[in-house]
Specification:
Blueprint (H helix, E strand, L loop, with lengths): L8 E4 L4 E3 L8 E5 L6 H10 L3 H6 L3 E6 L3 H11 L4 E4 L4 H5 L13 H12 L16 E5 L5 E6 L9 H11 L2 H4 L2
Parallel strand pairs: 3-4, 4-5
Antiparallel strand pairs: 1-2, 1-5, 3-6, 6-7
């Protein structure tokens, strides 16, 4: 089983250094966002929300990384209200270290993106770019307390996120057997 290398420094929402190695020690669902305005990322985070109690009861956590500056990320996190660990990576060290790529020229303008933007607009939730770079792709990683990966999903397009059921299977595989017993 491969091990995730967390040898870079992030920032918490207050702007303080947060060594990524602090993510070791607990089973973790790690979500790297495309950009803050990504409706697919926001939907993915919302779909993870009902599983927070299970994850926390097993001693785990959900950590979310964005390349937005800490103060921008703090406002975004507060607006969404999800109880995740929010971390900023303006230099994108995490994206580089975990080989998370970038989409092609038309990537953010795929039929799925356009449709999602139109339906959001009709529901009163227009797509508003939060950052200038809409080509950064995202990823989901799940690892155990020692950093051993049970899932690595690097998005290939803006709407490519793993099903939450797959993320939760990987999380349960990352939890020590004693912690997963009732």
């Amino acid at each position: 089983m491969a091990r995730i290398l967390l040898n870079f420094v992030l920032r918490d929402v207050d702007g303080d250094p947060y060594p990524a190695s602090r993510l070791y020690g607990r089973p973790t669902v790690l979500v790297l966002l495309r950009h803050l305005g990504c409706l697919f990322c926001q939907q993915h985070l919302s779909e993870l929300r009902p599983h927070v109690a299970e994850i926390e009861n097993a001693g785990g956590r959900i950590a979310v990384i964005s390349f937005a500056p800490p103060q921008h990320l703090a406002g975004f996190a507060a607006a969404l209200g999800h109880p995740y660990l929010w971390l900023s990576d303006p230099e994108r060290a995490s994206y580089q270290a975990m080989a998370v790529g970038r989409g092609g020229l038309l990537n953010p303008f795929s039929p799925a993106d356009i449709w999602r933007s139109l339906t959001g607009l009709l529901r009163g939730k227009p797509w508003i770019p939060q950052q200038a770079d809409v080509w950064q792709l995202g990823a989901d990683f799940v690892f155990d307390s020692q950093g051993r990966l049970t899932m690595a999903h690097r998005c290939r397009s803006s709407h490519d996120r793993p099903p939450v059921a797959e993320v939760m299977r990987a999380f349960r595989a990352a939890v020590p057997v004693a912690a997963s017993l009732p």
